[in-house]
Design goal:
The chain is of the alpha/beta class and about 425 residues long. Helices cover about 45% and strands about 15% of the residues. It contains 17 helices and 13 strands. The strands form four sheets. Strands 10-9-8-11-12-13 form a six-stranded parallel beta sheet. It is globular. Bound molecules: uridine-5'-diphosphate-xylopyranose (2 copies). The site of one uridine-5'-diphosphate-xylopyranose (UDX) has 19 residues, from helix 10.
């Protein structure tokens, strides 16, 4: 596994857990040192014990020596980051191409090179070109095997995937990939193969569709607020249609994470490149970006446009629960905006203090929910962590009339109004 981030480490540990011998490589030496020390650098439920168990059994190793690791491996999974590039739209593939060069220098026997990272369609062709500059095609095959891991549920998503997608132009290699995934297929995972570019597009089209579903219900939520309808009823009502499906229809603040924002943009760049305008996805991107501002304006309105010196508490700042990942979290635009307007912001997150807010002196981390909320004018539930689902609001603040903006609809309006709180939520 080249690249030991959320994707490489989880996939490597889980492959080891299936009985394979795996070496996870990373250029970040301290990350490798931590892992060799039995510490796991990311917050992913269940990952620590799988890493420990398989390191102990000797099946899972960590190394910063990319050449030796490539030489002794049959399958080389490329899991390095493919972040949005400077132009904020296309995927930055410099790491992928760098690793491809490293691989081309260390092909001592036949290698199956697998892009696990989300890479724009035709990247496999480019990797193949880079490697065949140095090594003839008979010594390697480049294929696509995109990951569909959700942070916070990555291990479950690896073990019980809805589908395993292989993109290869060579049936023999497809069969070898099928063998590798046999233990999951035996337990019911669908194994689906297509050509390499097909698999590359499936990953983007899948993420973009999920992002579209979320933006769709977020805009319906805006309408519901104007016509006194509860968006949760609409989500349930349409989700019962098997063709729509009820998941990813939860209205909330804008979608965030390391994938949806970058993958939707990268897919529209591919569309433009091949002169096939993906107008729906472009509008999803615009809608999601507008939503961050919209919700911040809602906060101002709740505070009757007097933000200066107001005290606001954020409960949860990560882009979703069960992860420490802040990438593209909507809190990254809301908190600085409100702080610049003169608000005093307290925040609590189960995964601890965030470096992203250290430069704001009016933003303070508390490692206790109630301390964070004490004496505040407004409490915002930003991330739907389990521990926010049964808050003792009376204890939250001595004030009778605290304002609560529940951005994840964790509570029922009726019960909150009954207990006398000024309660705001999404789409209700
Ligand atoms: C990333 C992308 O976000 C995701 O879309 C893609 O599917 C897989 O790669 P993630 O694991 O979250 O997923 O990336 P990140 O957490 O940034 O980890 C990438 C790792 O690769 C880092 O640890 C980085 O140090 C390492 N890396 C990067 C290398 O080892 N070599 C390189 O040349 C570049
Ligand atoms: C996503 C895809 O789900 C996964 O298949 C892919 O491999 C990587 O990208 P992830 O980004 O980890 O996974 O998180 P996800 O659970 O999809 O949530 C993404 C964003 O959408 C979060 O900000 C979340 O809060 C938001 N979301 C999700 C909603 O607002 N409503 C929903 O109903 C679901």
């Amino acid at each position: 596994m080249i690249g030991t981030g959320y994707v490489g480490l989880v996939t490597g540990a889980c492959f080891a857990d299936l009985g394979n011998s795996v070496v996870c490589v990373d250029k970040n030496d301290e990350k490798i040192a931590m892992l060799n020390n039995g510490e796991v650098p990311i917050f992913e439920p269940g990952l620590e014990e799988i890493v420990k168990k398989n390191s102990l059994s000797g099946r899972l190793k960590f190394s910063s020596n990319i050449s030796a690791s490539i030489k002794k491996s049959d399958f080389i999974f490329i899991c390095v980051g493919t972040p949005s590039s400077k132009n904020k739209r296309s995927a930055n593939l410099k790491y992928v191409f760098q690793v491809s060069k490293d691989i081309s220098r260390n092909i001592n026997k036949f290698k199956i090179i697998v892009t696990k990272s989300t890479v724009p369609v035709t990247t496999g062709d480019k990797i193949e070109k880079i490697i065949s500059k140095r090594k003839s095609k008979k010594y390697f095959e480049v294929i696509s095997n995109p990951e569909f891991l959700r942070e916070g549920e990555a291990i479950r998503d690896f073990r019980f995937p809805d589908r395993i997608v292989i993109g290869s132009n060579n049936n023999k290699i497809t069969r070898r990939m099928r063998n590798l995934y046999e233990p999951l297929i035996k337990k019911g995972a669908h194994f689906f193969s297509t050509n390499r570019r097909g698999a590359e597009v499936i990953k983007y089209a899948s993420n973009a569709f999920l992002a579209t579903k979320i933006s769709y219900i977020n805009e319906i939520a805006n309408l519901c607020e104007k016509i006194d309808v509860n968006v949760e009823d609409v989500s349930l009502g349409i989700g019962l249609d098997q063709r729509i499906g009820s998941r990813f229809l939860r209205a909330g603040p804008a979608y965030g994470g390391s994938c949806f924002p970058k993958d939707t943009k990268a897919l529209t760049v591919t569309g433009d490149l091949f002169k096939s305008n993906l107008s729906i996805i472009k509008s999803v991107i615009k809608s999601n970006e507008k939503r961050r501002k919209l919700l911040t304006l809602r906060v101002q309105k709740i505070l009757s446009n007097k933000i200066k010196n107001k005290k606001i508490a954020f409960l949860g700042v990560t882009f979703k629960p069960n992860t420490d990942d802040m990438r593209q979290s909507s809190s990254l635009s809301m908190i600085p905006f409100l702080a610049k307007k003169g608000a005093k912001i307290n925040y609590y997150d189960p995964t601890g203090q965030k470096k992203e807010f250290e430069k704001f002196k009016s933003v303070t981390f508390f490692n206790d929910v109630y301390k964070a909320c004490k004496g505040n004018d407004l409490v915002i539930i930003h991330t739907e962590w389990e521990e926010f689902k049964a808050l003792d609001f009376k204890k939250l603040s001595k004030r009778k009339k605290i304002k609560i903006f529940d951005m994840r609809n964790l509570y029922s309006e009726k019960s909150m109004k009954k207990s006398g709180f000024e309660y705001y939520s999404i789409g209700r």
